[in-house]
Design a protein that fits this description.
It is a single chain. Helices cover 27% and strands 24% of the residues. By secondary structure, the chain is an alpha/beta fold. The chain has a single domain, classed as D-Amino Acid Oxidase, subunit A, domain 2 (D-Amino Acid Oxidase, Chain A, domain 2). A hairpin with a 7-residue loop joins strand 15 and strand 16. The longest helix is centred in the N-terminal third of the chain and has 21 residues. The two termini are 31 Å apart.
């Protein structure tokens, strides 16, 4: 049984099924629903991760699997635009480390001068930048559509999908007995469980996860481009990440929904079930100021859409993948921390192998990392990872 049909859960269920398991997948509101961390229109797909080799490797594997899925089923979930990394701080350790890591992995990261970047992308203002890098293999993924597609494929290949909610918090005694109760008082029995419930992991397992996964409110904006102007479409510019005092990022195109821009800075703690998803004036002002500086032609562009999703952040921004300490046949997978969606296919492979073949998860992902003497379990400001 896999609980949660987002990026981690959907791909895990599909991979388990393809490896011969009989799988039931459940989700409270449906794959890619608006409350989930895997919802929304698009997500950046990149392999640039500083010196974190484990994520560079996972992202490279995930990109291969996304391409493979698109080629096999003609889904068009990945759009290759390249990614532009813009650093506006003098000592940019992240981009320097990324250059070395990608070169070691045999991947390309092209350094651009300000003059080169301005010639290539005249719709952007590169004043005040310290380094500009271009990752040609990167692009973006259609997030909500991908979640729905994976579940449709799962059902078409013989999996069972149920629109249902798991009782919260999970009853540990029932879980030890291989049972999980649903909100309609029915129960499901299974040999193994994978809880890929994103921002709800802390409330499902308050004693095991608790504040180790903290949902934060993240605001996303779509601004309107001038009529007939193709400069801000994905055919004319890449996805971009601006690494400065704040990390801002954006995606052109977005299925003609508008020019997407978002602030990666952690927002306030947020209730993903009932929290208000209205935009705040403070974040709108921050977005406007950034547009005026980096995209002058959009300084007064109309705000045509907003979204609020949430990060499901761990204190160190690393994923959380481990057995439940009181029920070793139950796995907890989450802590995407704002960068997990792209990893879905690779995480599905990893979790399916752990469930079916046994083994120990990556040390960086284990629960035990937070029980070390002196280790602070409190959420911190998220570093760009």
């Amino acid at each position: 049984m896999v609980i949660g049909a987002g990026a981690f859960g959907g791909w895990t269920a599909l991979t388990l099924l393809r490896r011969g398991a009989r799988v039931t997948l459940v989700d409270a509101w449906g794959p890619g629903h608006v409350r989930s961390s895997s919802g929304g229109e698009t997500r950046i797909m990149r392999t640039t991760y500083g010196s974190r080799a484990i994520y560079t490797s996972l992202a490279a594997r995930a990109l291969h699997l996304w391409r493979e899925h698109d080629a096999r089923f003609g889904t068009g979930l990945f759009v290759q635009t390249g990614a532009l990394w813009i650093a506006s701080q003098a000592d940019d350790q992240f981009t320097c480390a990324s250059t070395v890591a990608l070169e070691n992995a045999g991947r390309v990261l092209e350094a651009l001068t300000r003059k080169d970047a301005a010639r290539r992308y005249p719709q952007m203002n590169f004043a005040g930048t310290s380094s500009i890098l271009f990752e040609p293999d990167a692009g973006y993924l259609f997030a909500r559509r991908a979640c729905d597609d994976v579940v449709r494929r799962f059902v078409a290949e013989g999996g069972e999908y149920r629109h249902a909610a798991v009782e919260s918090p999970v009853d540990t005694r029932a879980l030890r007995a291989h049972r999980v109760r649903l909100s309609d008082d029915s129960t499901i029995q299974a040999d193994a469980f994978v809880f890929a419930c994103g921002p709800w992991l802390g409330t499902l397992f308050p004693d095991v996860v608790g504040s180790l996964v903290t949902p934060t409110k993240q605001e996303v904006f779509y601004v309107g481009t001038p009529a007939g102007d193709e400069r801000f479409e994905d055919s004319r510019m890449p996805v971009w990440v601006d690494v400065g005092p704040r990390v801002m990022y954006g995606i052109p195109g977005n299925a003609h929904r508008g020019f997407k821009i978002a602030d990666d800075s952690p927002g306030p703690a947020f209730d993903p079930t009932s929290g208000s998803r209205d935009a705040t004036s403070t974040r709108v002002k921050t977005m406007r100021a950034f547009l005026a500086r980096r995209f002058p032609a959009l300084a007064r562009a109309p705000l045509i859409g907003t979204e609020v999703c949430q990060y499901e952040a761990t204190p160190d921004s690393d994923f959380l993948v481990d057995r439940h300490p009181a029920a070793p046949h139950a796995w907890i997978a989450g802590g995407g921390s704002g960068h997990g969606f792209k990893m879905g296919p690779a995480m599905g492979e990893m979790l399916a192998a752990l469930v079916l073949d046994g083994g120990v998860p990556e040390a960086a992902f284990r629960l035990s990392r937070f029980s070390q003497p002196g280790r602070d379990r409190r959420p911190k400001t998220r570093k760009w990872s």
